[in-house]
Amino acid sequence: MLLVGLSADTVQRLPERDNRENLTPQVALGKKVWEDNNCLGCHTLLGEGAYFAPELGNVYVRYGNSKEAIKGFITSRPVDGIPGRRSMPQFNMSEEELDAIAEFLKYMSEIDTNDWPPNVQG
Amino acid sequence: MKYQSQKVAKPYFIAAIGLFVGQILFGLIMGLQYVVGDFLFPEIPFNVARMVHTNLLIVWLLFGFMGSTYYMVPEESKTELYSPKLAMLLFWVFLVAGALTIVGYLAVPYARLAELTGNDLLPTMGREFLEQPTITKIGIVIVALGFLFNVGMTLLRGRKTVITMVLFLGLVGLAVFFLFSFYNPHNPVLDKMFWWWVVHLWVEGVWELILGAILAFTLIKVTGVDREVIEKWLYVIIAMALITGLLGTGHHYFFIGTPEYWLWVGSVFSAMEPIPFFMMTLFAFNMVNKRRRQHPNRAAVLWALGTGVMAFLGAGVWGFLHTLAPVNYYTHGSQITAAHGHMAFYGAYVMIVLTMISYAMPMLNGREAANSNKSQVTEMWGFWLMTVSMVFITLFLTGAGILQVYLQRFSDAPLPFMIVQDKIELFYWLREFAGVIFLLGLIVYIVSFFVKGEEARLKPAEQTLVE
């Protein structure tokens, strides 16, 4: 019962913290692209997911507040990987999808997370 | 075995063990990919291997829970199962649906699978542990409903015991909380918040009820201690599990955009989550110490005691290690989390299912109470190899995690993620080595089912205990 009560209270308070004023259709599409490619299967997002690849909740900040840098990284992945090393697959995303995922990651970086992660490295 | 319909448990247990093998093989693939990054790339990228590894775990544990239920409920209720046919039908539906899903993961890129299965109609995919296509999720709900109906009807017409009520409450909770997997709002914070209502309320909530019920059942059987005593323990354990576990959900609400009061709520209540697990340890040891019969199935007793200890270590101790908000600030989403996840799942849920299988399988195979001593010794080798290597997997991941947290988050000059991963490579190699030993243990465990020899018999209680 307490869990339900506190959760209801949390849902009430979320608008102050969850950046929803910026929740555009493009961000929603970005979240869908994120899910359809199972990004969480390697990365963490606000610390949740797999621990094989870097945290992406703050990647927008880490890449110097640049959506172009995020898109550049995604498009430059070699199809056959990098010998001996971990490499992100080449997802062959459309320009629309790339813009959306970059916008989504920017959105994630603007959520009030009680100052997590401790530094820009994630 | 007292009721014919208990036999439906057997295919469930066999499927569980088969899928367990698959889970471990994919675990080894992932472990190798941690150090040889391009292993099987791009055919089986890490995210696919991980989906297979975690989804197989969940599915085989569910097979184990269902098999255990089918074994326990007729005996507890003193009546045959409502419909053994329905149980067998659901078995095949679940197995085929599960197999198709895994084949889907492996055969086509995930985005294509999402497209093929109509994820656009009701998007639920691409979230950790809930990667299954929406249609598979609907299938899981149907199987769960059929299962609950079958078990519920059996309970209604038979004797009601505390054990079956706790078990049924856990199973209903399992089904109900799974429904939150269909809630996938655009708002990522809301999505994350209620995603935990499936994941946390399963493993740190209702699954603990199932765990408690199975442990209580097997302890009654192998120790002969009075049901009243065991039921009292069970009551207290599940009360503590719910009191601490429900609000313990708060330890996932520290850094995902939820309000600051969760830092306190989550820390305080989840700090108490080890209590029910420690009580399970005491419970198992106390009951075995006070046993009124010497059960010939010593392997089952070992598994039951092992569950008590390892669940407390994995879920209790390793959970507490990083559950306080100031600590979790540094450890959140690191290899520390992975270390905890491995030992907690093994110690609590893998071991309780193997406890039940160990206890029930001899009877399901037509023996009076137990396998031959030789078979049991082989099984115990499996127990020790798997359990000890899991301890080492956990320790190596903990070592990796401490270094990772220090280098990436704690030191004065934090390093990038991938640089840190290179530096802690040694621990990943050691973890992989321990994983290979785990697989060996699993093979030995499976071999034990095929070791023949004269059946170990039940001896009259007093006679054995006076000796």
Describe, in plain words, how this protein is organized in 3D.
The complex is a heterodimer of chains A (122) and B (467). Helices cover 43% and strands 3% of the residues of chain A. Chain A is mainly α. Chain A has one domain (19-109): Orthogonal Bundle (Cytochrome Bc1 Complex, Chain D, domain 2), CATH 1.10.760. Chain A has a two-stranded antiparallel ribbon with strand order 1-2. The radius of gyration of chain A is 16 Å and the shape is globular. By secondary structure, chain B is mainly alpha-helical. Chain B has a domain at 1-158. In chain B, helix 2 runs antiparallel to helix 3. The relative contact order of chain B is 0.09. The mean pLDDT of chain B is 96. The chains are: A mainly alpha (122), B mainly alpha (467). At the A-B interface, helix 1, helix 2, strand 1 and strand 2 of A face helix 1, helix 2, helix 4, helix 7 and helix 9 of B.
Chart the SSEs and their pairings.
The complex is a heterodimer of chains A (about 120) and B (about 475).
Chain A: H1 2-13, H2 25-36, E1 44-45, E2 48-49, H3 59-62, H4 67-75, H5 95-109
Helix pairs in contact in A: 2-5, 4-5
Chain B: H1 9-35, H2 46-77, H3 84-107, H4 110-116, H5 134-157, H6 162-178, H7 188-223, H8 227-248, H9 261-271, H10 274-289, H11 298-321, H12 325-331, H13 335-364, H14 373-410, H15 417-423, H16 425-448, H17 461-466
Helix pairs in contact in B: 1-2, 1-16, 2-3, 2-5, 2-13, 3-5, 5-6, 6-7, 7-8, 7-10, 7-11, 7-13, 8-9, 8-10, 10-11, 11-13, 11-14, 13-14, 14-16
Structural class of chain A: mainly alpha
Number of DSSP-assigned strands of chain A: 2
Largest interface: A-B, 64 and 68 residues
Which blocks of ≥5 consecutive residues of chain A have pLDDT under 50?
A: none
Rounded mean pLDDT score of chain A: 96
Anisotropy-based shape of chain B:
globular
In CATH, the topology of chain A is named Cytochrome Bc1 Complex, Chain D, domain 2
* Secondary structure tally, helices of chain A: 5
Strand-residue proportion of chain B:
under 5%
Please tell me the CATH architecture of chain A by its name.
Answer: Orthogonal Bundle
Mean pLDDT of chain B: 96
Order of helices and strands of chain B: HHHHHHHHHHHHHHHHH
Biggest sheet layout of chain A: 2 strands, antiparallel
Instruction: Calculate Rg of chain B over CA atoms.
Output: 22 Å
The coarse overall form of chain A would be: globular
> Could you give me the name of the CATH homologous superfamily of chain A?
Cytochrome c-like domain
Q: Oligomeric form of this entry? A: heterodimer
